[in-house]
Amino acid sequence: MSGGVDSAVAAARAVDAGHEVVGVHLALSRMPGTLRTGSRGCCTIEDSMDAQRAANKLDIPYYVWDFSERFKADVVDDFIAEYSAGRTPNPCMRCNERIKFAALLEKAIALGFDAVCTGHYATITVDEAGNRELHRASAWAKDQSYVLGVLTAEQLAHAYFPLGDTPSKDLVRAEAERRGLSVAQKPDSHDICFIPDGDTRGWLAERVGTATGEVLDRSGAVVGSHEGAHAFTVGQRRGLRLGTPADDGKPRFVLEVRPKENTVIVGPKEALAIGEIAGVRYTWAGLAPVDATTPFACDVQIRAHADPVPAVARLDGDEFVVVPDIPLDGVAPGQTAVVYLGTRVLGQFTIDRTVSAVPVPA
């Protein structure tokens, strides 16, 4: 129970369904903030108190479990390491993968619980053979299946998402009001939970340091300088402070980050078009295809709120390779690609390499 309206209503529905429910709030920071600022941040003391009030209203036991050390190692330190390597990580994916459905689930199973129930908007179905499948929520505008794409078949067997069939968040808030839950109108959390002020560049600078480097165009010409490559991500336009304008006068965007050389490569917007993505760190959300080495049609989604794009996927040796029907825009290594078959989440991989759809001019 995060202290938000979704997990509170999910817990209430689990109680209504006849389950023996225990509310658990995860303490993910050794020094949590006391109060939230609107929709920024989470895991504050206020959030813990909101979760407890909801548990009291539902008359269920409530505990706070300290996962701060593992969260720091598996999510925060990973975030720093990925940016330092020139990649753009998704900490919400890592949290679901390594904390909520790994560390939390492991402890829950050890204590005799059957499943972890959360307020995510996604659904789980069971096929004729009894195999579980992860599917999109009924309301695509609120669908959160993308951030759950890291779940494995074993984890899906112990997951429960009571909100998946709810058509809108407004209905969840109205239900919370009817149930007398004080979090009914509480704002949703946004941004990275451990960077509540939203200043990712400043946060990284404090932990990685700064070092002056060059900004290059695709021909290798120096067009500016920066104070640390880790502060940039593919597709970025703002904050480049380039001293040399483009020949065509158009804005330039970050195309690549090279941390070893401490350089940033920029170019025109059209150069952000990506014709192929691939990665070796992949998992299947349920049953894997019988022969994934044979190219198959699918949809690929590269951000939580991006539209799915028709594509062809295959396993090529150790790599999961996806070729979209139309180029993807501004893909960065480190992002997660989630592959769908219709509404079903087939699997995911961390993007290691991209192939531009626009060749570098000679």
TrEMBL record:
Residues 203-267 form the tRNA-specific 2-thiouridylase MnmA-like central domain. Residues 142-144 are annotated as: Interaction with tRNA. The record marks H120, Q335 as: Interaction with tRNA. Residues 290-347 form the tRNA-specific 2-thiouridylase MnmA-like C-terminal domain. The active site is at C95 (nucleophile), C193 (cysteine persulfide intermediate). GO terms for molecular function: ATP binding; tRNA binding; tRNA-uridine 2-sulfurtransferase activity. InterPro entries: MnmA-like, MnmA-like_C, MnmA-like_central, MnmA-like_central_sf, Rossmann-like_a/b/a_fold. Its main location: cytoplasm. GO terms for biological process: tRNA wobble position uridine thiolation. Keywords: ATP-binding, Cytoplasm, Disulfide bond, Nucleotide-binding, RNA-binding, Transferase, tRNA processing, tRNA-binding. GO terms for cellular component: cytoplasm. Its EC number is 2.8.1.13. It catalyses: S-sulfanyl-L-cysteinyl-[protein] + uridine(34) in tRNA + AH2 + ATP = 2-thiouridine(34) in tRNA + L-cysteinyl-[protein] + A + AMP + diphosphate + H(+). Belongs to the MnmA/TRMU family. HAMAP family: tRNA_thiouridyl_MnmA. Catalyzes the 2-thiolation of uridine at the wobble position (U34) of tRNA, leading to the formation of s(2)U34. NCBIfam families: PRK00143.1, trmU. PANTHER family: MITOCHONDRIAL TRNA-SPECIFIC 2-THIOURIDYLASE 1, TRNA 5-METHYLAMINOMETHYL-2-THIOURIDYLATE -METHYLTRANSFERASE. This is tRNA-specific 2-thiouridylase MnmA.
